[in-house]
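Report of the visiting student (M.T.), summer placement. My assignment was to run the structure pipeline on a short list of targets and document each run. The first record concerns (apollo) hypothetical protein.
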Amino acid sequence: MAKTQTENLHRIAQDVSAIKEEISLIKITTDLLSSEQVKIKSCISGFRANIQKKVETIENKIASLKSGSTSAIPAPSFSYEDLISETYERSQREKNVIIRGIKEIRSSNSEEKNIHDSEEVKKIIKWLFQIA
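After the run finished, the structure tokens were exported:
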């Protein structure tokens, strides 16, 4: 009987020793988790501050756009007559041939544009016949 009690005490001592080791590992893990938690909280605080700054910047930009938007947009200067003229010119140019490299004249007079384009095309045709 003394032998079994001694064995039991020895097993209990081993179990207590194993429990102490487990508790020690749990404490180490808890300490590591605590330090990681502190790091994560610090990162989150940094992110929060950064996001707050960005939100404030965006809000300021929106406010400045709202305040400046009414005065910055000019009223359209197209007349009904200009719109009809542009539509007519587009329908006239619908089947035109596009030749690259010819400088386009910047004139509001369509007759001037036609004369300029005709002369440029004549120059190209003359040049083509000289080659052939």
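The chain has two domains: 1-69, 99-132. The CA atoms of residues 3 and 9 lie 10 Å apart. I thank the supervising group for their guidance throughout the placement.
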